[in-house]
Design a protein that fits this description.
This is TIGR01777 family protein. The chain is of the alpha/beta class. The protein has helices at about 10-20, 35-40, 80-100, 135-150, 170-180, 200-215, 230-240, 250-260, 265, 275-280, 290-300, and strands at about 1-5, 25-30, 45-50, 60-65, 110-115, 125, 155-165, 165, 195, 200, 220-225, 230, 270.
Length: about 300
């Protein structure tokens, strides 16, 4: 396949791009930093720095859209919220317009979203049919998805990736959690009862490939492992894998002081399950959290 990828230098995108290259696909990467992308992928891929000169995306078999400003790196000021939204919305809208402008458009657009689409759902089991709680993360993701769905037609199917916390040996949320836990200073956040939907990076990449290869699949997919855990369980299992204690609970008020409104990312959660992905026949490699954590932390240690 000839595939256009945005967000290829990110946590998911870099692993996905390398996998697609190993499968002999022809890859074009859209990136603002061509030099950085070239350092990662060399001359195996083609590089675009802009879509400005494009009149359509004819000639591509698929578009995989993973670009977006990291959501948890900064406090949510009004300006930061606008950056978070427009880094996703503007590019997605442009991709959809280019797909629609063609006479022979890509057969599939696989576009990013997040489990945050549902907002804070408390203890309820969350399938793709769950009604969302109307808060900022939902508003961001709902608009992001609706723009992607503008590309849908008889010629182009659209798959939406409602992704949980991606566990990887390098980067992502786990990289931020590990230092205090390695020092024995980790523990639950708030009351610890909020659910954390997670997925191993390998399963995330495999899931995207599954959607790419199965032409009947479209619509939203919860890209999460089948068994989400409470924050308290996550802390305990991470500490266990590291052979460290995990008794220093972080009070909710401290997270609100530190993160402001963005604290909902760690004080709230979704008990999201991958109903549609499993119904489609996808098989997860990493079903249990401890198995996934053990794998990614051992990979990290092996690379030291």
């Amino acid at each position: 396949m000839r595939i256009l990828i945005t967000g290829a230098t990110g946590l998911i995108g870099s692993s996905l791009t390398q996998r697609l290259l190993s499968l002999s696909h022809s890859i074009t990467v859209l990136t603002r930093d061509v030099q950085r992308a070239r350092e990662g992928f060399g001359e195996q891929v083609s590089y675009w720095s802009t879509l400005q000169d494009q009149t359509s995306l004819d000639g591509f078999d698929a578009v995989i859209n993973l670009a977006g400003e990291p959501i948890a790196d900064k406090r949510w000021s009004k300006a930061q919220k606008e950056r978070l939204c427009h880094s996703r919305w503007d590019l997605t809208e442009r991709l959809a317009a280019l797909i629609n402008a063609g006479s022979s458009p890509p057969g599939v657009l696989i576009s990013g979203s997040a489990a945050g689409y549902y907002g804070d759902q408390g203890q309820a089991v969350v399938t793709e049919d769950e009604a969302p709680h109307d808060e900022f993360t939902h508003q961001l993701c709902q608009r992001w998805e609706s723009l992607a769905l503008q590309a849908q037609s008889d010629a182009t199917r659209v798959c939406l990736l409602r992704t949980g916390v991606v566990l990887a040996s390098k980067g992502g949320a786990l990289a931020k959690m590990l230092p205090p836990f390695r020092l024995g200073l980790g523990g639950p956040i708030g009351n610890g009862r909020q659910y954390l939907p997670w997925i191993h990076l390998d399963d995330m990449v495999n899931g995207i490939l599954y959607l790419l290869e199965h032409a009947t699949l479209q619509g939203p997919f919860n890209m999460v492992a089948p068994y989400p855990v409470h924050n308290e369980q996550f802390a305990a299992q991470l500490a266990n894998v590291l052979d460290r204690p995990a008794f220093l609970r972080v009070p909710a008020f401290a997270m609100r002081l530190l993160m402001g409104e963005a604290a909902v990312l760690v004080l709230g959660g979704q008990r999201a399950v991958p109903k549609r992905l499993e119904e489609a026949g996808f098989g997860f490699r990493f079903l249990e959290l401890e198995q996934a954590l053990d794998d990614v932390i051992n990979q990290r240690n092996d690379k030291r």
